[in-house]
Amino acid sequence: MNEYTYYLIEKKAPIAWVYLNRPDKKNAMNPPAWEEASAVFESLGNDPDIRAIIVAGKGAGFCAGIDLMSMVGEIPELMDPAQKGGVKWQLLQKIYSLQETITCIERCRKPVIAAVHGQCIGAGLDMITACDIRLGSKDAVFSLREAAVGFVADVGVLQRLPLIVGQGITRELAYTAKNMTADRAKQVLLLNEVFEDPAALMTGAEKMAMEIAGCSPLAVQASKEVLNHGIARSVDDGLKYVASMSTNIIPSDDLFEAVAAFTEKRKPRFTGK
């Protein structure tokens, strides 16, 4: 029996599949998505029968990003127009907690492969940058969407994505909120490989996971530790800085406008205030 609300776990030793399992909402990340991740990846990281993990999405795509409307109830500070120091302090702690949802994937002892089909937007892109390897199908679409809704991306993508694709591509995505195709994603090294369709993607991800599982688990896990050690300080410092920056610019007229536009199903009119 699955013990999680947002995630569906399937163990087929030596591989575990972690599915984002909210297909009716395009796997948009609601409160359980953020609350359950640490337990999921800690449990799998400590499971001696599991040597590799595949993260994939159920339904039409990988993840449509944060479920802003459901998260507003969990983080009322986002919409408080008269924030004082105490409110900012509470918001900062909540951002740290959200960051942990992504960091726990990077910290997981077992290698994690992201298998991406369809939309991989916002928080979905955050998530896959914390994975060790990223694979995609031709229909995969990537977008760092926060600039389109009045946020600075604050849970890890701005720290991890430059290590994968470089500063120029990261800044292009962060400043424009544009979509990137799977072929382009492979060209800039966001994806290791592109498959013809989602079925071929899942087969390819399983094949790679089995290749990993066939190697010495001690050597594989030690390699992940060494690789993480090489980037850990810069990522950790960056996460603390962006949490502070995000707290400083929230709330804003742009954020209120983004929420109103979403509700009214229209394009937002941002003023930079």
Q: Tell me, what's the shape?
A: globular
The biggest sheet, with number of strands, parallel, antiparallel or mixed sense and barrel status, is:
6 strands, mixed
For this structure, what is the CATH homologous superfamily?
2-enoyl-CoA Hydratase, Chain A, domain 1
What's the CATH class, please? Answer: Alpha Beta
Q: Which bin fits the share of residues in helices?
A: 40-55%
Helix segment tally: 10
**Integer count of domains:** 1
Order of helices and strands: EEHEHHEEHEEHHEHEHHH
Please report the distance between the alpha carbons of the first and last residues. Answer: 48 Å
Radius of gyration: 18 Å
Q: Give the assembly state of these chains.
A: single chain
Poorly predicted ranges: none
Return the CATH architecture: Alpha-Beta Complex
Strand content: 5-15%
Compute the number of strand runs.
9
- Enter the CATH topology name: 2-enoyl-CoA Hydratase, Chain A, domain 1
GO molecular function, one term: lyase activity
EC number: 4.2.1.55
GO biological process, one term: fatty acid beta-oxidation
Family: Belongs to the enoyl-CoA hydratase/isomerase family.
What does this 3D model show about the protein?
The protein is α/β, with parallel strands linked by helices and 273 residues long. The protein has one domain: 2-enoyl-CoA Hydratase, Chain A, domain 1 (Alpha-Beta Complex). Helix content is 51%, strand content 15%. It has ten helices and nine strands. The strands form two sheets. Strands 1-2-3-4-6-9 form a six-stranded mixed β-sheet, with helices on both faces. Helix 1 links the parallel strand 2 (15-20) and strand 3. Helix 3 (85-107) packs antiparallel against helix 9, helix 4 crosses helix 5 and helix 5 (157-165) crosses helix 6. The longest helix is centred in the last third of the chain and has 33 residues, at 217-249. It is globular, with a radius of gyration of 18 Å. The N and C termini lie far apart (48 Å).
